[in-house]
């Protein structure tokens, strides 16, 4: 741990020194960024088939799935607080670890020695880029692109790499040592972020560019970058958490700025602690079952997973058939119980355990939530806003009013169908002789929904698993990408090192066969070390400034992380249909990152895209899971190769709107609760956070929440992620994505030429323009008009529905 702490600490000490100094020479800056790193590649954090590479990552934005499952969240709470980044080839002649650490640890060594000993500030070969040329960055900035923006991009990019390496490992290979190291160094990181964001020389230089005669000659992407930086006071940061702080306090007087900075430091610390408590509480729960009767109804795939978990806990003779079995609160374990276990008491036990995660004892997040909300409100007031939601919206397409208006419109359309969903469930349970039919509650709805779906559409999700093996799903997904966007995707395992042997690495090529991007894919759940959820993260952005000599642009690199059911025995990973949708979802994010044509690194791909527009490509891709040709290309029985029967496909299509009102209302509950907490809730006032939850639930939950409901204690999206006062963006983006897909419907989904032409137009607008153009302009350029909610309501079968106020 001490080694890790020293490495990170040195990084930010150097960064802060660089921001303050006026005498930094080009030579010392080159020294800062061009040392050969020690042999970290052999550390316990990595496994690799490559002999000279280092890798993991996420960057500015990490996009988790929404909490959309009918049980408590298929994706499980994400944690977007960090920004993961790159791992690249090391120099061929690295110094020894011992010498590096000795130098870094010594308090009397020179600055040059510190620079040369830091393994995370070295040049790397994959992907390569030039040294930072940030000569006298703060005190001698000039209001020109080459002297301001390019050096700034280089500095931020390099430091993002350093912090991202560690944060990515924390997300996928968590250890107590990493946690302690990050906690110790975190203040230095935030100090640097705030110093950069509050730099008046940099701010004034951006302002001068905006007011210069050359302004009109700048490209739209460069103008948007400058205006964004002026608006947000140079909101260029290393972590996703700071990104939600729309203003960085540069306009505050010294006393208030000091207060603002203390708030930022404390918020980051609290968010990390919140996330750790959720992870620890999830890991803490284990249910050992030895009586086979208690497992009645559970499918073989779930029993195999539970037995495998039991083996990992020391029950060496555990088998799927005879047990013992260990059940946890991780999605692949929790969901099958809620869907299939006939043991109602077991379902109740798991539901209550999940519902109360991180709400008691040393892991209680209640006080942390209160303090986070209190500090966010204080920050908003310091910046001149009425509440934190107003702060959040300054970097989004919507306003508080527009977001609330959309949520109410969708709630009204969803309420009636959701009420009917519950009546249908009660009637069905009664027809099956269920004792609980007259009093169905939270731990019953998922179970009986699955039974009703099986009865109504004759579809058993578990019986579909053999048709959705991971290799076939990925082959079909890549084939779709070729059809729509004209790209080829091929395995490139061994080109870059990975952090776990299950991780795959891929190369993306254009129609000429030239590489245009790369990405990692980490598909399986690893409860002991990997946080729950599914997300896409940026490793490198496309950038002309960061291009290696001899190349015109640095290629983008992404990673996709899921938590789906791992292989059991000699079977491949057999996926549920929801897991298939999740992979398509995250791949949509990756496509926007990888297929960008923006060469300005700070607005390329997912960078600078308004938060409520960034889900458009991901949710758009989910629609293709229901497209016949696409689905048939991935739905092949893993043993026989048989294609999914046509009648089952038709039932899947018909079942798409099954309980659509209930699913929609659930998302609207989360979004409404988020906005209420960040607009009207008064920390320390007469209402508690749980009172607010109960009040919002009156109009958004057909079954009222339990009095002991503590879902908020695990709501990582808004307390440890980038979705504070922004959860509505899932529904906002659903409107955009459904309307975008309707362009393909209008063109004719059976007309291959029309689909390809429309796909190219989508690629050249939504996927290519990144943050260099306002998202509404991008959408209009693709669709020919502004977005309409009609396609979303039509797809969900909710057009004619309404609800009382």
UniProtKB/TrEMBL annotation:
It catalyses: Hydrolysis of oligopeptides, with broad specificity. Gly or Ala commonly occur as P1 or P1' residues, but more distant residues are also important, as is shown by the fact that Z-Gly-Pro-Gly-|-Gly-Pro-Ala is cleaved, but not Z-(Gly)(5). Its EC number is 3.4.24.70. The keyword Protease applies. Keywords: Hydrolase, Metal-binding, Metalloprotease, Protease, Zinc. Residues 337-797 form the Peptidase M3A/M3B catalytic domain. The keyword Transmembrane does not apply. Its cofactor is Zn(2+). Residues 134-257 form the Oligopeptidase A N-terminal domain. InterPro entries: M3A_DCP, MetalloPept_cat_dom_sf, Neurolysin/TOP_dom2, OpdA_N, Pept_M3A_M3B, Pept_M3A_M3B_dom. Binds 1 zinc ion. It comes from the Eukaryota. It holds the Pfam family TOP_N. Belongs to the peptidase M3 family. This is oligopeptidase A. The lineage of its organism: Eukaryota, Viridiplantae, Streptophyta, Embryophyta, Tracheophyta.
